[in-house]
Amino acid sequence: MGEQYWGRPLAGFGDAAARLVLVGLAPAAHGGNRTGRVFTGDRSGEFLFAGLWRAGFASQPESRGLSDGLTLCDAYVTAAVRCAPPDNKPTPGERDRCRPYLTEELSLLPDATVYVALGAFAYDALSKTPPVAGALPRPRPRFAHGAEVPLSGCLESRWLLCSYHPSQRNVFTGLLTAAMLDSVLARAAVLLTTTP
């Protein structure tokens, strides 16, 4: 094959003025770890960016590589863990060690009002990361696909939405369908238009 891999920690990707922020698990071994852009070059990314395109947040439905021309509008995509984990399964320890990077990244997105956790792992990461940490209701709601959690403690309304992760396993088994992802992204779009 002779392909050179990125093989370094990955930051997120998208619009610096994004009001919608999606958080996944970690770069895939042969996706972001290979291409150098989160959710790019693997089936999870194909599924996610196609959904973002259908919802009007992406300029095209595919994300193959850094020079593919993809841009995001009012959206930003990142991950709880920055490096491809062994067996593509990030651990809570990796999540906790990467939390300062996610915290810093989210602080650079001051316009964010809707967060989407792609999977329970991302939900746990967001629940411990400012600006979401401390704004969740108590007791913390359980993760469930389609769950909507209002975030408190700010002047404007903010929301945390939940979706199953667009992993190959979830998509191939039907746990997550395109219609299910579209529903979450459509709800995010509605919340963005009704949030002051």
Could you characterize the architecture of this molecule?
With 196 residues, the protein is an alpha/beta fold. The chain has one domain (17-194): 3-Layer(aba) Sandwich (Uracil-DNA Glycosylase, subunit E). Helix content is 32%, strand content 14%. The chain is built from six helices and six strands. The chain has helices at residues 32-35, 43-54, 92-107, 120-127, 168-172, 178-194, and strands at 13-14, 20-24, 75-79, 114-118, 148-151, 158-163. Strands 1-3-2-4-6-5 form a six-stranded mixed sheet. Helix 2 (43-54) crosses helix 6 (178-194). The radius of gyration is 15 Å and the shape is globular. The mean pLDDT is 93.
How much of the residues is beta strand, in percent? 5-15%
- H/E element string? EEHHEHEHEEHH
Overall geometric form: globular
Low-confidence stretches: none
What's the CATH architecture name? 3-Layer(aba) Sandwich
Helical residue percent band: 25-40%
What's the SSE blueprint?
Blueprint: E1 13-14, E2 20-24, H1 32-35, H2 43-54, E3 75-79, H3 92-107, E4 114-118, H4 120-127, E5 148-151, E6 158-163, H5 168-172, H6 178-194
Parallel strand pairs: 2-3, 2-4, 4-6
Antiparallel strand pairs: 1-3, 5-6
Helix pairs in contact: 2-6
